[in-house]
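User: Sequence in, structure out. Go.
Assistant: Echoing your sequence, followed by the structure tokens.
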Amino acid sequence: MKTTGKIIKMLEIESGKSPKGEWKKQTFVIDTGEEYNNIIAFDVFGAEKVDNLTKYNKVGDSVNVEFNVNCREYQGKFYTNLQAWRIEKAGEVTNAERQPERELVEDDLPF
């Protein structure tokens, strides 16, 4: 899934240890500007993703967020979170979207 909005809050980085090793997580909140359901909180999980989030983004930045919706059940209750896997500045053109510029040459015609 994908959405666009302005980062309005970055929560504190959480970290800890589990049987699988150390983990790091950060939550950030965006405002989509929509009339309803305009505030959305996303999680990034993993040291590299957390570092990239804090390095390249700050409160006030407009961003495009691609994310997955995860839901799990624990003791009869269901918990849903939105896990961001790509965060880009809104309006930036990626390498895949760029079109190569072609240089015109006068004698480029085949006839």
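User: And one key feature?
Assistant: The chain has one domain: 2-89.
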